[in-house]
Amino acid sequence: NDLSKLTPVPADAMAQDMRLRTALGAPDVRYVIVLQGRDTDAALQAGERLQPALDRLVAAHAIAGYDIASRYLPSAATQRARQARLPDAATLRAELAGAVAKSPFRADAFAPFLADVATARQAPPLGARDLDDTPLAASVGGLLLPRGDHTTALVSLSGIDDVAAVARVAQAHGGQLLDLKDASETLVGAYRERVLFALGIASLLLIATVWLALRSPHRMLRVLAPMALTTLLILAALRGFGVELTLFHLVALILAAGLGLDYGLFFEHAGDDYGEQLRTLHAVIVCSITTLLVFFLLALSSIPVLRAIGSTVAIGVVGNFLLALLIAREPTAQPAA
């Protein structure tokens, strides 16, 4: 389930990337806190309630830092509270006049400032859409995700040193610490289990279909035995070379098994006629060689996913062909000249 083994990036490059991210204080790509709200403003309020606790985590060195949408875009209630703390025009003008009288500035130098404060007192609260086409749009847009009837606020973390403490703080404030690595591996594991279950059902249906088509247990075994034995051979070979099996190996096993079934059916269909067997052998050899070349090239790839598929199917092509030739083909005597 370890998806990190599927990356084509060398281990030393990944280690260097981790060191650079730590030195630069870049957000952690594994952990993120998730907050939910009925709308964007509710999600921003949830972030504001969480911020003091996150500041305490930073002070306790449980995390090195964090990034949250409410840092750039306060909730409407916070914006109105800040507006209410702005002095009215008369009070501000009187206080400013007293300060300017003791300075070398002219009395009208701060007239634009007075106008801006008056405008700010009456301005409607900013929303997420008001940040469009501004430098803050990308930061807020990546941390605030509207989803129909609710909004998700994400809190990116950096330099996590105490995962348990962060999880407790997130839960205490109605959030959740999401482990993206664990979540992705859980999804892969669940998908693998579904695939294995589907393969079990498909195998039973395949056996029933072949038996109905051939109407003979002996002929059915001759067709299915090469495919089954080759599957075991592939698994043994990969494990023998120390290859950790992944979901892509499993998918490739299905493809290899399908090739084995085809080879077995072709040889069985040829019967005991010598000429028909030669024609079948020639056709299967051509198909096997071309298939082997394609997947052998994939097996040489530096990309783990392609290498997993290529190596699995390449072994399967060789094993299926040889075993089908030995087991599925009916023995026959060469006709006399």
In short:
The protein is α+β, with helices and mostly antiparallel strands.
Describe, in plain words, how this protein is organized in 3D.
With 337 residues, the protein is of the alpha+beta class. The protein folds into two domains: 3-179, no CATH class; 216-328, Multidrug efflux transporter AcrB transmembrane fold, CATH 1.20.1640. It is 66% helix and 8% strand. It has 13 helices and five strands. Strands 1, 2, 3, 4 and 5 form a five-stranded antiparallel sheet that branches. A hairpin with a 2-residue loop joins strand 3 and strand 4 (150-158). Helix 10 (217-240) runs antiparallel to helix 11 and helix 10 packs antiparallel against helix 13 (304-328). The longest helix has 35 residues, at 180-214. The chain is elongated. The relative contact order is 0.11. The model has no long low-confidence stretch (mean pLDDT 87).
